[in-house]
Amino acid sequence: VVFLLPVTLVEIWIRILLVSGCEDIQEFYKDLLIITGVKKLTEAYSVLVKTYGNSDIIVTLQTLHKFTKNQDIISFQLNLLKLTNSSNLTELTQKFTKLTKSKTLIQSLTVIYDITEIDIEVFITYLTTISEDFEEVITVIIGYTKTTNFVQALKTLKKATGEKTIIEAIKHIQQKKPSTFTTTTTTTTTTQKPVTELEQQLIEIFGVETLEELLVVLRRIFNTQTEDVVTEVVQIISKITKTNITSFLQYIIQITATNNFQEAVTIIKQSTQQKLTVVEIWTRILQESGQEDVQDFHKNFLIITGAKSITEAFNILAKTYGSTDIIVILQTLHKFTKNQDIISFQLNLLKLTNSSNLTELTQKFTKLTKSKTLIQSLTVIYDITEIDIEVFITYLTTISEDFEEVITVII
Which domain of life is it from (predicted)? Predict the structure, then answer.
């Protein structure tokens, strides 16, 4: 349902143009599909219901005028997507509802507007002068105001900066002026909490200069807003590896061939097309691979690919498995074996076929099955044999330990 009142189609289009600020109904629909990230109008309306909480597009457009002076509501939405690094309305809604603890985008915009009392587009534009990375901006704002969430940060912004308006408060932070909030004090002097040995190590590992910068970066990367950020991050890391935090982070820097952990995160995020935090990526990898320690996983991953760095390993995955999404690859490999440890499965295939790495294994299998990738080869074999690939190859090698000789015998 596009419009709940009984009107003609032409009347609906005229109302849409009047309320949206657009001049051409065809251009309006084209932009609507871009904003919602779908290909059909029926899908677009479904997205509008989920994001804005209303199936009446006229009402939705009218409501959006409350939050901006931009008469072109399509332009308003497109600008919000760009400013917040969102690809579509669903992604924008997820970000805003998470920040404001709301259910719909309209509710989120209302929360922000009621606090700031300024044009939402103008507000977000000024926010992104702090950083082009919207998520980093949020972390900075929360860290600067020493609050635990975005709504509290907005309410505290003017007090924290000593400025009279939200815009001036944002400029204050953008210019890196100090907060008006005092640090821990004694009876006579203001003293700052001393930096611990662990914090100093993390400052170097993350490539920052101060504890304040470190806390901002930790909140952004690990998506945490707790008061004791360092302790929280240590606990997060301890859930995915037995290695102590500094040794683990330094290892990741080493295998990504980067200068600091911030740069390393960028490389790790290239391992999947899914929009996840680095910890979410590692958690999914452990779930799908059957491994228990992410450092051990990476070590075995490099052994299997024969690579010296993660970037090189990703390139090998693309050539052998035909995909660079490691999570998808791990999920796919489960189709061919009952071995829940997918790393063990691949290592066993290498051993059974006398292959030194994944590239060599792929060359053997694709040659045998006339396929292009290892996944295609495994699919061909599995579809014919209908048994666990590892079990099948194990039985084959009872004929001879030389895999190529086995093939010759079979043929």
Answer: Eukaryota
- Tell me how many degrees the CA angle 297-301-305 measures, rounded to the nearest 5: 175
One DSSP character per residue, 213-234 reads HHHHHHHHHHT---SSHHHHHH
Distance of CA 372 to the CA centre of its chain: 30
The domains of the chain are located at 1-115, 128-179, 195-267
Q: Mapping DSSP to helix (H, G, I), strand (E, B) and coil, where does residue 185 land?
A: strand
Neighbours of 214 (CB within 10 A): 23
pLDDT score for 88: 94
CA-to-CA dists, residue 296 to 129, 303, 341, 365, 370, angstroms: 41, 11, 12, 27, 34
Sorted by sequence, the CB contacts under 8 Å of residue 282 that are 6+ apart come out as: 240, 268, 294
Flag whether pLDDT at 189 surpasses 80: no
Q: Are 102 and 149 in contact (CB under 8 A)?
A: no
pTM of the complete model = 0.55
